[in-house]
């Protein structure tokens, strides 16, 4: 759900000045970052869809296949959150937010799965 919401924000509202502080966009740079914001928003939608499909597959009889998809999506976001921090230190809170739930999902799966 969070990924889908962030995807909407990045794709449709990156030009809205109310969100420039969150997205670290300067008003004069909106046109320059449009392609990147829309691309990142699309990948967030793709991962949200992957998680939803993985959970659906888990709950309709193919636990191994669905779990693999979910774990891949979670592990990808843990890595991508680290990479976000590496590339832009000012987004450290966003990086933590991006990694927290997927990281916990992986830990709980390893402990309880």
Set down the secondary structure blueprint.
Blueprint: H1 2-12, H2 20-23, H3 30-59, H4 63-87, H5 92-112
Helix pairs in contact: 1-3, 3-4, 4-5
Looking at the structure, what is the overall shape? elongated
Structural class: mainly alpha
Beta-strand content bin = under 5%
**Tally of DSSP β-strands:** 0
State the low-pLDDT regions, or none: none
Structure report:
The protein has helices at residues 2-12, 20-23, 30-59, 63-87, 92-112. By secondary structure, the protein is mainly alpha-helical. Helix 3 runs antiparallel to helix 4 and helix 4 runs antiparallel to helix 5 (92-112). The model has no long low-confidence stretch (mean pLDDT 90).
Question: Could you provide a short overview of the structure?
Answer:
The chain has 113 residues and is mostly helical.
Characteristics:
mainly alpha
